[in-house]
């Protein structure tokens, strides 16, 4: 059985998808981009600011499902420019405990929604 997860502390979906779906004890988040949920505006200025907003959005979705970053088992990071990898990794690492870090891939892509520079999705499991 699946349960749709929604929180107003993360951006509302901008298409026919959910912020996350809980199937059994596994949570699948949709990709988050740097949208401020309060204003609906893109956060910009630096790749660090964009990544922080993405991680804050993911934190809100995880919390809405009764989880946190320690529950994450897999992360997918999509970036426009691999030269931003180190900066993204630094911000991402400030949210993730290195001792229990999830598996992860980082992929450079040609384009992301709303022309943002970073999008991240996660899979988490309730312990």
Automatic annotation (TrEMBL):
<protein>
    <submittedName>
        <fullName>DfrA</fullName>
    </submittedName>
</protein>
<comment type="similarity">
    <text>Belongs to the RutC family.</text>
</comment>
<dbReference type="InterPro" id="IPR035959">
    <property type="entry name" value="RutC-like_sf"/>
</dbReference>
<dbReference type="GO" id="GO:0019239">
    <property type="term" value="F:deaminase activity"/>
</dbReference>
<dbReference type="Pfam" id="PF01042">
    <property type="entry name" value="Ribonuc_L-PSP"/>
</dbReference>
<dbReference type="GO" id="GO:0005829">
    <property type="term" value="C:cytosol"/>
</dbReference>
<dbReference type="InterPro" id="IPR006056">
    <property type="entry name" value="RidA"/>
</dbReference>
<dbReference type="InterPro" id="IPR006175">
    <property type="entry name" value="YjgF/YER057c/UK114"/>
</dbReference>
């Amino acid at each position: 059985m699946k349960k749709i997860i929604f929180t107003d502390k993360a951006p509302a979906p901008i298409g026919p998808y959910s912020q996350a779906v809980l199937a059994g004890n596994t949570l699948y988040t949709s990709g988050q981009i740097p949208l401020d949920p309060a204003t609906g505006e893109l956060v910009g200025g630096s790749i660090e600011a964009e990544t922080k907003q993405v991680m804050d959005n993911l934190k809100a979705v995880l919390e809405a499902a009764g989880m946190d970053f320690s529950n994450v088992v897999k992360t997918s990071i999509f970036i426009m420019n691999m030269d931003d990898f180190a900066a993204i990794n630094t911000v991402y690492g400030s949210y993730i405990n290195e001792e229990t870090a999830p598996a992860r891939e980082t992929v450079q892509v040609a384009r992301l929604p709303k022309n943002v520079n970073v999008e991240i999705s996660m899979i988490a499991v309730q312990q």
